[in-house]
Amino acid sequence: MMGAYMRNRPVLSGSAEPRKAWIIGSGIAGLAAAFYMIRDGGMKGEDITILDTMHIEGGSLDGAGDPENGYIIRAAAR
Ligand SMILES: Cc1cc2nc3c(=O)[nH]c(=O)nc-3n(C[C@H](O)[C@H](O)[C@H](O)COP(=O)(O)OP(=O)(O)OC[C@H]3O[C@@H](n4cnc5c(N)ncnc54)[C@H](O)[C@@H]3O)c2cc1C
Predict the structure, then answer these.
(1) Rounded-to-integer distance, Cα 27 and Cα 66, Å
(2) Fewest beta carbons less than 10 Å away: which of 18, 31, 35, 58?
(3) Can you give the pLDDT at residue 75?
């Protein structure tokens, strides 16, 4: 599936440093925000912090996994 914005690749006007981002909520909206900050905003992942009240990322998509075995997300978390 290809959305309209996926074809857009903004030209960076400068370095994103020393900006930091704090995203509240690790649902798909928060994860997408982080993705585009990295891909289009030129931010480093280490400069982005995602906060969530739950013990696992993904929000309603119910994330699971780890760096060694990979990640999955599914619906019906709540
Ligand atoms: C049972 C179910 C089935 C679904 N099926 C589909 C489907 O088939 N197709 C489809 O397109 N969509 C489906 N959806 C909808 C889809 O999952 C949601 O629209 C989407 O995941 C919402 O993402 P979000 O990031 O906006 O919010 P959420 O996934 O709700 O994430 C918000 C996150 O923010 C955290 N949070 C909230 N407030 C705070 C706070 N003050 N401080 C810290 N953290 C906070 C929450 O803990 C949560 O992790 C389904 C949803 C459910 C519940």
Answers:
(1) 17
(2) 18
(3) 65
pTM: 0.84
Determine if ligand 1 sits within 6 Å of the CB of residue 55: no
Tens digits of residue pLDDT in 53-76: 988 888 888 778 888 998 787 765
Q: What is the pLDDT of residue 45?
A: 95
Residue 76, ligand 1, Cβ within 6 A = yes
- Tell me, using a 6 A CB cutoff, whether residue 1 lines ligand 1: no
Which ranges of 1-78 would DSSP assign to H, the alpha helix? 28-39
Residue with tokens 């370095």: 15
